[in-house]
């Protein structure tokens, strides 16, 4: 699509001036970026190297998780507002999911809190084992338990981005870092194109750049959708 269309957008051969990959520092995100690049540039190895070897020739840029300014920004004010937001819904959530929290503790030993992502992680694991690979799961993992886990997970991710019930515009604003980063790059790129003769260190990078890619996580996508006001359509889809 990008390297073989008409007209060609990217050169079929990789050039560092044209493409930049940004990933979280977790292996699965880096591996996804590498897999994407093997599709973008299938002939990069020229047949001389197996795919895993030549994928490493395309740099993937990361920050340490604790200092990542875009994907995992640190914000004490967000943490405070997030806790207040969860506390405001505690009674209703415990009424709906208290039995599930007790079940998880009795069956797994995990002491689930409303702030944790344990229900999401448990649902993800069981969904992969049960529904995708059709492996045997414990007897307590019934269709109703899976449904409840899914709803609990949706609630937790929704509150993370400010789309609980009721929504929180404060939380939504706090989760707009990724969208802000993307829009700022749009503006910087446009400024470079409109003023090609103006010396600017930033334009030496952005000027020839054609493709800036992110490799991240589902929660990052949720944050961007929340910033755009489109988030509720996703968990309600099925």
Could you give a quick summary of the protein structure above?
The chain is mostly helical. Strands 1-2 form a two-stranded parallel sheet. Helices cover 52% and strands 4% of the residues.
Account of the 3D structure:
The chain is mostly helical. Helices cover 52% and strands 4% of the residues. Strands 1-2 form a two-stranded parallel ribbon. It is globular and about 65 Å long. It is an enzyme of class 3 (hydrolase). Its EC number is 3.1.3.2. Keywords: Disulfide bond, Glycoprotein, Hydrolase, Signal. One of its GO terms (molecular function) is acid phosphatase activity.
Outline the secondary-structure elements.
Elements: E1 19-23, H1 27-40, H2 51-55, H3 76-88, H4 90-108, H5 118-132, H6 143-160, H7 169-174, H8 177-194, H9 201-206, E2 211-215, H10 218-227
Parallel strand pairs: 1-2
Helix pairs in contact: 5-6
As a percent range, the share of helical residues equals 40-55%
The SSE order reads EHHHHHHHHHEH
Mass-distribution shape: globular
Q: What is the arithmetic mean of pLDDT?
A: 85
Rounded Rg: 22 Å
Low-confidence stretches: none
Class of secondary structure makeup? mainly alpha
In order across it, which strands form the biggest sheet?
A: 1-2
Number of strands: 2
Strand content: under 5%
Largest sheet: 2 strands, parallel
Oligomeric status of the shown chains?
single chain
The helix count comes to: 10
First-to-last CA distance: 30 Å
Catalytic activity: a phosphate monoester + H2O = an alcohol + phosphate
GO molecular function: acid phosphatase activity
Family: Belongs to the histidine acid phosphatase family.
InterPro entries: Acid_Pase_AS, His_Pase_clade-2, His_PPase_superfam, Histidine_acid_phosphatase
